[in-house]
Design a protein that fits this description.
Layout: H1 31-46
Bound molecules: zinc ion.
The site of zinc ion has 8 residues, from loops.
Length: 60
């Protein structure tokens, strides 16, 4: 008895609204949620304001 049934991929849920992801290869249910997530990411961890402190060793 051969069981050659491929395992179905894990059901992905949209991190924004927790709905099932609509497309393969995407964890979002829609482009809108993907944009929202991108916006959060840009506003949050990525776009951290950095104080422009002149470094005497690095300045010319
Ligand atoms: Zn969504």
């Amino acid at each position: 008895m051969i069981q050659d049934v491929p395992r179905p991929p894990k059901p992905r849920t949209c991190p924004i609204c927790n709905r099932a992801a609509a497309r393969e290869g995407s964890r979002f249910c829609s482009d809108r949620c993907q944009t929202i997530d991108l916006g959060r990411w840009l506003k949050g961890d990525y776009a951290v304001p950095v104080k422009a402190e002149p470094n005497p060793d690095e300045e010319d």
